[in-house]
């Protein structure tokens, strides 16, 4: 009777364990183990802090794991696992075959499968179980799947698993509290980093004030553009981003500019209309050589940069700059001209329409980076025939440096009789601001197997310049490379120095007679 009780006790213990979850075999070998998971983009590259995803946006990427262990004496790794999204089991008892017919390699990141999730989701990979064929790999063989509960040798199990990591991504959104209200509410949308994802935040409101916490409110002195800094700390890593916000006074200004003739002060700027806001409006102009006026329209102007501030009856203000440039002979006869930058394509588009083409010739599309620079020709469009009807033209520019936030354009028509000029158009672009100094290395700290990306985030134009990279370790200089700066201003570190082992390093970046030193921690 006592022996029967023991039998029933064993039976109920087995039933309890089976109902509580998977029953894993007892795996004593540690030939192969898993030490972590990572989410990557669809090219298999780790995410960078400069990637721009919206919270909740669907991401098509890949799931990778870091394979470790004590021996490479195996192949045909059968890998079982469960996927939990935000704490909920969504994919049960998944299976992949790793290293089919080839010798397994340890100490590297291994792609598990293509993977889709929503940006901001916490992905846990649990109930890990791997078993393998022992010995030297036999070419042409593959995994033969069997019931994992019958395996108790040449295997690895880990019911708890790991969270699939993405880097720490500080990000925020903001809303205003009504028309011409400069009190702005900020909301952190930070994700990634190290579990348990308990972040602390520090905010910098363009040097006007600071705050902590995830959802601060700040009252700015007026409408306009402000640079906002957000520093996030997850208990392991600290990352800072800067982003410009624009507080819109909700009214617009339309002006017409008549450039001055050469060696004259005959320019004019007319305010055609002010829309939005509440009348009456007041106007304040400032310009070169101490120019100041409170008139709506201004005359007798020399070339240079003029600034207009419009204030409505509620005290809402908006400030806009206009560049008045010398027209050497005559202005083009245009029905319209416009220039705009597209965030989606990254191109600046110029469009204009002539009322007629009285002379054959050619249009020169000209650009300059700063008001002090000379215009340079970036494109040409021929006008081979005289036309009496309106004609539309279009030109797209992609040759500017990625870190230029404003560009100046004009159209010049060359004919046998004279040269004609359009007004100068100012185009503003959104560009990333520096995170740390002028160069940043990501991810840092990193672990073995991760690719490192070096990016230039300064305001200088270093396209086509040579950049010297010098890697220094505890034993001295480990390597030196001289490379041309790529068009995207990003350099893949591993392509030049390969994977570096754990330790502490210094990367010296030398460009344009300047030096930046970045400390690298490889865990």
From TrEMBL:
Q: Which SMART domains match?
A: PKD
Which residue range or ranges hold the PKD domain? Answer: 167-247
Report the domain of life of the source organism.
Bacteria
Which CDD domains does this one have? PKD
Q: Entry's Gene3D superfamilies?
A: Immunoglobulins
| PROSITE patterns documented for this protein | PKD
User: Mind telling me what this protein is named?
Assistant: PKD domain-containing protein
Question: What organism is the protein native to?
Answer: Algoriphagus faecimaris
